[in-house]
Amino acid sequence: MYAIVETGGKQYRVAADDLFKVEKLPGEVGAEVVLDHVLLIGGEETKIGNPYVEGAKVKTVIVEQDKARKILVFHYKPKKNIRKRFGHRQPYTRLRVVAIEG
User: Fold this and answer.
1) Where residue 92 falls among pLDDT bands split at 50, 70, 90?
2) Does residue 59 lie in a domain region?
3) Exposure pattern of 12-27 as b/e (b: 16+ CB <10 Å)?
4) Relative to the CA of 89, which of 22, 48, 56, 78 has its CA 20 to 30 Å away?
């Protein structure tokens, strides 16, 4: 059984015991997070939402709260001696799927 969930403006295909990274969610490591924006539940019988499946939930547990690798951003304007360089680390939350209910 698998599900397609929406969180942080993105969609993820998840199954039981999957680990996946999402945009940062509030909560401590070990806390339970219920994702209720389920777009589709697949398996023996497929349920497609309009836009979400009624009463469907994906129960997850927060495994880690961390930041991604640093990306460097560099802006410059040629012949004007204008240069800006800075970095960014995007925070994320890693989740483990405990159960898919629907």
Assistant:
1) very high
2) yes
3) bebeeeeebbbeebee
4) 78
Host domain of residue 49: 2-65+92-101
- The whole-model pTM stands at 0.84
Q: How confident is the model over 57-91, as pLDDT tens digits?
A: 999 999 999 999 999 999 999 999 999 999 999 99
**Sign (positive or negative) of CA dihedral 51, 56, 58, 59:** positive
| CA–centroid distance for 88 within its chain | 19
For residue 51, tell me if it sits in a domain.
yes
* Bond before 78 cis per omega within 30 degrees: no
Q: Examine residue 71 and state whether it is found in any structural domain, yes or no.
A: no
> Exposed/middle/buried for 65, CB within 10 Å: 0-12, 13-18, 19+?
middle
Domain membership flag for residue 73: no
CA 102 to chain centre: 20
